[in-house]
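Subject — a protein and its fold
Encoding — discrete vocabulary of local shapes:
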Amino acid sequence: MEILANIVGISAVILFALSFQCKTRRGIVFANVCSRILYVLQYVLLFAFEGIVFDLIGAAATFPAQKKEEGFVKKHKTLILVLIFLSVAAAGVVMYRNILSLMPVLGVTLELIAVWSTREKTIRIVSFFAQPFWLIYNVCNMA
């Protein structure tokens, strides 16, 4: 099971790295969502529950981010962002075990800031800075 989880995890890393090659915001965000889905699968295989929860929150928050300039989301953007970040904070409190439990909280927070950004360069830079937190979490969970 661990070998399969690592194969899925390596695939997620490759897909995430390829997202930096995308030219449009939409392409970057789409590649990130696909990468998150693979990460969730990896965490399921490893029983790494914090990773599952925070990647699911991150993936779910990506959908309104894609529509941030349209209709309901545009009208209620502030409320949606507050609810998203409150859900991250609440999950962080509920899932807290030790200082390492904060790594996915910090990682997903930066990634959420990235996907809600408008400029492709900002998305890439902020996403890049989120990765050390996820790397620490992954190393500690044998991912």
